[in-house]
């Protein structure tokens, strides 16, 4: 679209099905590169990606004419396929249904990127469940409390 200028930044969070600890260090970099490729092939701007053993954080600049749900569906489906084809885990790998998506302004990007970059440090003090509930409470979407 000619003469269209946007700044739409979205922080995407999703978990391994059952929140099992299945994202091992030895394949994290390849997983991140693969997800980066999916995002870039859709012409979005990846700002940062990081994962822990049971979940992923992605910060992107998203095109205004895109469907976020379709993008996350493609990321999850294709990365699951990669993990299963490479047999990185015993059994079948799946991501948990659903995702969180939170919008930020340009002035907040450095703080959000640092937060994502420092996931390992954050999770020495609190669980993914607590982190995710804090995000939900901060942004106040309607949500059902997460099961233990």
Keywords:
148 residues; alpha+beta; globular; 4-stranded antiparallel β-sheet; Alpha-Beta Plaits; 4 strands
Which architecture per CATH? 2-Layer Sandwich
- Number of distinct helices: 5
Helix content: 40-55%
**Main sheet makeup:** 4 strands, antiparallel
Instruction: Work out the radius of gyration.
Output: 15 Å
The averaged pLDDT comes out at: 90
- N-to-C series of helices and strands: EHEEHEHHH
Low-confidence stretches: none
CATH topology: Alpha-Beta Plaits
- What order do the strands of the largest sheet run in, or round the barrel if closed? 2-3-1-4
- How many β-strand runs? 4
Query: Which structural class do the helices and strands define?
Result: alpha+beta
- First CA to last CA: what distance? 46 Å
The CATH superfamily is known as: Transposase IS200-like
CATH class: Alpha Beta
The backbone outline, from C-alpha atoms, is globular
Report on the structure:
This protein has 148 residues and is of the alpha+beta class. The chain has a single domain, classed as Alpha-Beta Plaits (2-Layer Sandwich). The protein contains five helices and four strands, in the order E-H-E-E-H-E-H-H-H. It has helices spanning 25-41, 68-86, 109-117, 119-122, 128-139; strands spanning 9-15, 45-51, 55-61, 100-104. A four-stranded antiparallel beta sheet has the order 2-3-1-4, sandwiched between helices. A hairpin with a 3-residue loop joins strand 2 and strand 3 (55-61). Helix 1 crosses helix 2 (68-86). The longest helix is centred in the middle third of the chain and has 19 residues, at 68-86. It is globular. The termini are far apart.
